[in-house]
Amino acid sequence: MRVHYSHVAGRIAQAEVFGSLMVEKVIDLITIAAVGVLAATVLTLSMDTAHTEILFASIASALGLAITAIVLVKYFNALLLKWICTVFTYIGWESFFNRHIAVLIRSAGEQMTLNNLFSPGILTLSMWLSAYAFSYVFAAQFVGVSLSYEEALVVLFAGALGLMLPAAPSGIGTFHASVVSAFLLLGRSSAEGFLVATAIHLLFFAAYVLPAAILYGRWRMARVLPS
Residues 134, 22, 116, 154: what is their CA dihedral angle, to the nearest 10 degrees? Predict the structure, then answer.
């Protein structure tokens, strides 16, 4: 939807928008890993060794994925294109690759600059640590579950990392499993985790999806029925 809207309303090439989305995912991985580091640092004393190791392994995985994506797309762009082209040629989709995939990878490589990563990264991190973390605390309190700010950071880290993986529409199931895992990591009950995950899911659905659907509907109607 974002690619379509940006392409039509802003006259921006679709490949450029897709490239921006790839850069956003890298920023998300880096900043959510930073959130995990902060949470792990604060909670290390209250968590047992096994749980701490799992948390740090997850953080290392997020950072590893982000750094690998940056290195491949930015510094090994031509080699990456060659590898992927070989795969698409083998399955008989070389023309599809040249028309759609190659331009996307080149665009992402061009946009993977320090300026594009640093300022949005700082803004994203500040949003994780303020609006999102406190929203998680509020959602938990709304359903009668006590959740500290530090615990909310762990839940936020797990939930965000879970949503970055291929998931069902709207993250149904994947997000809930991630939050439940975070609660188990914190030594809390899975029932509390599932309750909080459902509350958070409903909160952000109401806050984002409903207004976005209304605005998108108005935009579509304005295009179909111009004044």
Answer: 20
Phi-psi region of 195 (alpha: psi -120 to 50; beta: other; left: phi over 0): alpha
pLDDT digits (tens, 9 = 90+) for 180-209: 988 988 888 999 999 999 999 888 888 888
Residue 28, classed as helix, strand or coil, is: helix
Per the CB < 8 A criterion, the answer to whether 89 and 192 are in contact is no
Residue 76 dihedral angles phi and psi, to the nearest 5°: -125, 40
Closest CA to 142 of 195, 73, 103: 195
Find out whether 196 and 146 touch, Cβ atoms under 8 Å: no
Select from 189, 225, 197 the least CA-distant residue to 136: 197
Q: Contacts by 123-129 with C-beta closer than 8 Å and gap 24+?
A: 124/27, 124/28, 124/31, 125/31, 125/34, 125/35, 128/31, 128/32, 128/35, 128/156, 128/160, 129/35, 129/38, 129/153
Residue type, 125: L
Higher-confidence residue: 170 or 212? 212
Q: Where does the pLDDT of residue 134 fall: very low under 50, low under 70, confident under 90, or very high at 90 and above?
A: very high
